[in-house]
């Protein structure tokens, strides 16, 4: 394949006594004529390759079919009214609905109705305590730079806003519904309806990632801020201080622990924390004495399961855990914390997002999904101990028969690492995708995926590796995959690949690596450290230049996870694995597709441009290195049709370069639809 020329310039940074070459620095500027010309040529190269991929239309059709399951969220109750999201088969975006006591539903915010182009997304929303007003945030072209508005629920009329620069801002309403705390420009502010946003009082002026919550009675304000390996936490009694100047008392600061706090209807301060408990424990305290020295264990740490959330329903406390990434919900006595039983779940999957009525009651709602079950909402009744379906996914789909197996392998240092392997019944090596993330304490849990199922249905293997750096085994598991221990993540991934090959699931000539965002740093490291293990790779929204990642997007917020090139020791960690800097001439690199998005404000597409140029220059083989760029979308949610197109292109590329035969192409006949092999 003939690649567009990309000049290698003698650009070298001298950092803390180290010479750091950066020959494609010029590709960082998206507006320069040279970058534009190069990018246009790359677009043409990808389009030509994509047009020739076998079964591309068939992959698209099957992904679209399975995406037709739609989505539905658990209800959020305010003032006897419920709010929820739902996307049907025919809709490009989920629509925010409300329903009153009579059960009649009404659409409140329909992104596609506001913008038929499909380029507007609903980023976040929060109803006022009485359900009469709704704060909601919209962004366009995928940039996630949200504008906040306030709607009168009864009429749909916008009564306040827009307020710009509210990227995924939490909103905490005061009980009278006339004001709320929120985050703008990464600072905590107080906004009173009807007043200019520029006059809003700044409550906390440091630029951080903030969380906000107010107790059900409006008395207690909880404020959290992400910090190094954990978060700082404050509590204010709004009955004893004004909203403009809340008396914020320290709950914890610089402990390296993650703690979430909320004052319950019983007046106790509940604290879900990893302090002295890497897998989490639930404590209670008097809000008047919120410091850690006054915390009392209510539900202690489980040595094998990680606490994720809790909910209070009458005299019952529900505690959700994941045991090796499989969900369970324990039923506990609210007063003593003693375990009384378990919430029956539909299967071995993921239960999340527990909600209750703010005024109390015996009902708890949660979502459930697994590898073959689209997300639906279930209701647990604390009086009967029964779980029942509440709202199914709105679409009907037929999913393939498959088997899920949990496989354990030993990483380079002997640490046991789990992965879930999905495959149809059968034996013998098959084309396989190994997917990983390994960062920020996020877990890879079982879930329905219209991207995974078509691959398995076509005869492939899909494996999800639960790597260090994630949250599958608690806070210590996360810490063992961050900063100076980041190499553990890559070693775990390589061990998972080797186990798939050794167990006969696949071969190196049939195995693909796949990741997104932080997971692409993982895939990039795998390509440059162990190119022999993989035939192909997809890197979506990639983070690859770890020396300069802090200079763009949300990079500065990630220093606590990766480290900083401004620190001599940390620069050494970063250079040790930075994929862009480890590309070596004369290596036969796997077929690689890098996908970028014009509206991505988290990870700048410059990472993919530089890595693409480096790999195209370096590879000694004939397997293609390609760049797929898409404008009008960003790092996060997008229109369903756009998501289908991206997934289909990724699957078609991976199938072509691992040897998986694409699905049959549906064709119309006089008597209906039948399949035609391609």
TrEMBL record:
Domain Peptidase S9A N-terminal: from-to ranges: 10-391
Enzyme class: hydrolase
Highest rank taxon of the organism: Bacteria
Alphabetic keyword roster: Hydrolase, Protease, Serine protease
Nucleus among keywords: no
Stretches assigned to the Peptidase S9 prolyl oligopeptidase catalytic domain: 447-659
Reaction it catalyzes: Hydrolysis of Pro-|-Xaa >> Ala-|-Xaa in oligopeptides
Gene3D superfamilies reported for this sequence: alpha/beta hydrolase, Prolyl oligopeptidase, N-terminal domain
Cited InterPro entries: AB_hydrolase_fold, Pept_S9A_N, Peptidase_S9_cat, Peptidase_S9A, Prolyl_oligopep/macrocyclase
EC number in record: 3.4.21.26
A Pfam family assignment: Peptidase_S9_N
Protein name: prolyl oligopeptidase
Species this chain originates from: Streptosporangium fragile
